[in-house]
Design brief:
By secondary structure, the protein is α/β, with parallel strands linked by helices. The chain has a single domain, classed as Dehydroquinase, class II (Rossmann fold, 3-Layer(aba) Sandwich). It is 39% helix and 17% strand. A five-stranded parallel sheet has the order 2-1-3-4-5, covered by helices on one side. Helix 2 runs parallel beside helix 6 and helix 3 runs parallel beside helix 4. The structure holds 1,3,4-trihydroxy-5-OXO-cyclohexanecarboxylic acid. 1,3,4-trihydroxy-5-OXO-cyclohexanecarboxylic acid binds next to loops.
C-alpha cells in the first residue's frame, strides 16, 4: 500500500467494547473506551503511523469495514468481542482481504470460561494478544507495525 509513505492501520472494536469502563469492571477494568482510543492515537503518533478507529456492535458492519480495507490499509488490529468465539464470517473476511491482522483482547480469554479460550479468528491472524487491558491494543499496534515494516 504505502511504500515510503506512512503505514495505515485500522483498529476495529467489536460488540460491547464501547461499554468498556462501564461493563464488568472486575473483568475489563475501569479505563473508558475514549481513554483507550486516546492512548491508541498517541501510540500511533509515536510509531508515526496513520490510524483509523472503528467500533460496531454489528457483525455485517465489521465485515463491510474489513472488505473496504482492501487496498487502503496495511494492517488491522481487531478486538472482535464475543464474535471471536463463533464468527466464521469475520474470519472469512480477514482471510479474504489477506491484510496482516492481530487479534487483541482486554481480558485474558484463556483464563476465563472455557468457551472464551477458543477463537475462530486467531488462526487467520498473525497472532493474538490477550490480557493486558487497554495496553493489549498498544502491544497489537506495535506488533503489526513491526510485521508490516519487515
Ligand atoms: C473480549 C473477550 C470476549 O470474550 C468478550 O465477549 C468481549 C471482550 C476482551 O476484550 O477481553 O466482549 O473480546
Amino acid at each position: 500500500m504505502s511504500s515510503g509513505e506512512k503505514k495505515r492501520i485500522l483498529v476495529i472494536h467489536g460488540p460491547n467494547i464501547n461499554m468498556i469502563g462501564i461493563r464488568e469492571k472486575g473483568v475489563y477494568g475501569t479505563e473508558s473506551f475514549d481513554s483507550i482510543n486516546e492512548r491508541i492515537k498517541q501510540e500511533a503518533l509515536q510509531l508515526d503511523i496513520d490510524i483509523e478507529i472503528f467500533q460496531s456492535n454489528h457483525e455485517g458492519a465489521i465485515i463491510d469495514k474489513i472488505q473496504q480495507a482492501l487496498g487502503n490499509v496495511d494492517g488491522i488490529v481487531i478486538n472482535p468481542g464475543a464474535h471471536t468465539h463463533y464468527s466464521i464470517a469475520i474470519r472469512d473476511a480477514v482471510k479474504g482481504v489477506n491484510i496482516p491482522t492481530v487479534e487483541v483482547h482486554l481480558s485474558n480469554v484463556h483464563a476465563r470460561e472455557e468457551f472464551r479460550a477458543k477463537s475462530v479468528i486467531a488462526p487467520v491472524c498473525v497472532g493474538q494478544i490477550s490480557g493486558f487491558g487497554g495496553d493489549s491494543y498498544l502491544l497489537g499496534l506495535r506488533a503489526i507495525n513491526k510485521k508490516i515494516s519487515e
